[in-house]
Amino acid sequence: MRYVGLLRGVNVGGKNKLPMAELRKALSFLPFDNLVTYIQSGNIVFDSDFSSTECSTLISNTISQNFNLNIPVVVFEQTNIIEILDSNPFKKLCEVEKKFMSFGFLDEYPSKENCELMESFSNEKEFIKITENIIFFYCTIGFGKTKLTNHFMEKKLKVSSTMRNYNTTLKLSTL
Fold first, then answer.
1. What is the rounded CA–CA span in Å between residue 126 and residue 15?
2. Which one of 24, 47, 49, 150 is at 20 to 30 Å from 35 when CA atoms are compared?
3. Using CA atoms in the order 70, 82, 165, 93, what is the torsion angle rounded to 10 degrees?
4. CA–CA separation, 6 and 86 (whole Å)
5. N-term to C-term CA, the chain
6. In 3-state terms, what secondary structure has residue 72?
7. What is the pLDDT of residues 54-70, one digit of tens each?
8. Element (H or E) spanning 64, and its range?
9. Is the CB of residue 30 less than 8 Å from the CB of residue 62?
């Protein structure tokens, strides 16, 4: 099975420094094949016969043991990433401008009530849709200016999330 592993909060603003070359070396001892990392924000693509949950645990434990960091890791089948891109409710908006699109990958399904609460923050410039364990977020004011940050969404949804922009998500679907 081809997987995409997403690490939350690494190499952001000098916090949780985790060089991808060192991470690849540490992960090379795991039962993963064809492992590659993509950019410095904690994206891993690999093959494994283990389940996504088992892979997440193996990656988290390896990071903890080798780097003394407690980093949340979510693992999706690569085919799921393709499905997420295909089911994007803001696909038409992305045809105009992809840079405003991001995806929040959740470690578990939030409650329906919390999803409805988070979606209620949508407005004429920021559009939010949550389906199962994905946040679809189209933000025309820019991610640096919005108050609807990943941290804000995590607090409202009461689950852990890691965000990726459209281009990164697209690339992870093909590696």
1. 28
2. 150
3. -150
4. 19
5. 13
6. coil
7. 999 999 999 999 999 99
8. helix 52-67
9. yes
